[in-house]
Queue: 4 jobs
Job 1
Amino acid sequence: KALSRTHAALPLLPSPLLLHNTPMQAAAPMPAPAPSTTSVTTSSFTTNDGVKLAFDVSRASSGNANASSPIVFVHGWSGSRRYFDHSFAALTAAPDAPTLVRYDLRGHGDSDTPSWGYHVARYAADLRDLLEHLELRDVT
């Protein structure tokens, strides 16, 4: 009974459904996206300690000199570059897409699984090797 007295003290508010009793109009169709002028390449390279790392790179075919800094996606422990599938696809399709790179850390995804090199300094060296391999500077 205490519960019903508490509810009785609350003011009655109109339902949000009753506030909007006009029929909804269909939104104008979205224009089709412009055809993508980027290409995605899947490849691999060998680090300076002999480990093969798999990566994908997306670059505008026109060179897109006005694009922002290249973006490098780095997944977390026990992940893979596939973690970024949706983001990578959406950004690749953007009209002003910068160069995009995603790669598999050593021991992950399609990269080699050596018995050594699983420490932060080596992961940083792998990233440096990748950037040098792709000749990328000023990355995000």
Job 2
Amino acid sequence: KPKAWFSGIITQPHLGKVVVARVLEDGPAQRAGIKVSDEIIAVDHTPVTVDSAGQKFDHLMLAPSARVMFTLRRRATDTVEDVFVDREPINDSHISFVTEALCDAPQRHSAPSWAFVMRPLA
């Protein structure tokens, strides 16, 4: 059983909403259809806000189930839909994706980024 799961996205607060800022190419989220600029409204029926996102995503990383339901508002169409992501056990390429995104973030954004992997686990 994996110690931690990875969904393959980095989120960013934007105008009071939690928005997908990056999607790992060929990662779990991309295979499920999640796109950059999708707004995350809820995860497994629990609402996600800018204030709760970091804590929710840390908890989600350790959740026992590999499958997670994201409720998204699609920016392109302003429609709301549920998307199921079959997460992967965390590996070195996932950590590299997150590290690169977080190192790049201060140059592009003044707000914090959240990842579904915030730190390696012991």
Job 3
Amino acid sequence: MAKKEKSGDAGLQCGLRVLFLWGVPIGASVLGFAPGVFDIIVSLIASVAEIALFMMRNQNKSGKRRTSIRPSGFFPLQLAGIYMVQLWVLMFSMASDSSDLDLSPTGRDLTA
């Protein structure tokens, strides 16, 4: 019975990790910015990898405890790296969109 509770806690942790992986695209949408395709693809790939890792950890092979592929303390470092890349791409796309605007004054006489 204790094994199932541990698995439930692990499932909750996996769900929270997947939610954190979508932090930048969701945050950008809430703030009114359009997240780029790259941001969404990075979150999707990281989510699929996290779920696959969770499934691999929870496989019971002859009752032996398998060592983890990734230590649990590595996730915050992975998350920080993903956030940095996503925010950099988001800022880069916003800067390139604002450079397309024509900021020159039209119809005004600047000599007066």
Job 4
Amino acid sequence: QQQQQQQQQQNNSNLNSLFSPSSIISVGDLGGTYELVFSSSVNVVGLRGYLPNRETIHFDFEAGRMFLKVETFPFLPTIDITGDDLTWYDKFHTLTYKVVGKKKQSRWKILYADESVMAADSSVTGLNVLRRIQPSSNI
């Protein structure tokens, strides 16, 4: 019982350090192109996070822009969305941008990022999990 409690405390400690602001995530870890593989916002329509479309997102911090391409059905055109004023707030592990034509700023709290995956809590779409496609190419 005591060993199990110690293991649980260690697991909790590992999770806390993973999601704490003291974890080392820098703007250099985030730039590049990703494919969205899960979004909690999809649960609203009953699909339980499954995306029936392909969404690729590119963060270009040097240019201060976010580019999102949404592919739905082969017979429909892609939807291209651009975000301006892409900004990284190192202290808060948060990036923000404003979608062209929208008044409200989008905010992503980065929960985890490495060379192949990113997890973020978005002010617009909830929990997102993204798979890195390329570190620094446009989509």
